[in-house]
Amino acid sequence: MNTNEPGSDGGSRYTYVISVVISLLIVIVIVKLTRYILGPPKEEELASSVNGDGDPPAEVALEVRAPGPVLCAYRRGDGWREPTCPVCLSDFADGETIRVLPACMHYFHAACVGEWLCGNDTCPLCRAAPPPPSPAGSPAKATSTA
């Protein structure tokens, strides 16, 4: 067989390279489609991949938190004891949004106490913790099996 004949060896080499490139493109498309369809990884999957376990936890504990601060509008004469916000020391105006902490019933301008509540669950005045959840019908922790 003469190696100088056109198409004898060169054509099969190009066919092989084109086949490999097309196969790689198909694999990449399949992987991208799979990731798109499945969406981002779940927290349990991320935790197991970081820990190296590979096995998801058998039980996941969900903490039920007490109700947070209540937002309402201040109205002078509606029975509010203090007309002044203890954080900024300015008087409440009619219709202003205030936050009432359910543990101690202290109230503040919503903006004044908002930053505090981002990092703390207690009242900035008396440090009262939120009340525990009521035992009737709402357990402190609920568990679900994964």
Automatic annotation (TrEMBL):
It comes from the Eukaryota. Coiled coil: none annotated. GO terms for biological process: protein ubiquitination. The chain crosses the membrane at residues 14-33. GO terms for molecular function: zinc ion binding. Pfam families: zf-RING_2. Keywords: Membrane, Metal-binding, Transmembrane, Transmembrane helix, Zinc, Zinc-finger. SMART domains: RING. It comes from Lolium multiflorum (Italian ryegrass). InterPro entries: Znf_RING, Znf_RING/FYVE/PHD. Residues 85-127 form the RING-type domain. This is RING-type domain-containing protein.
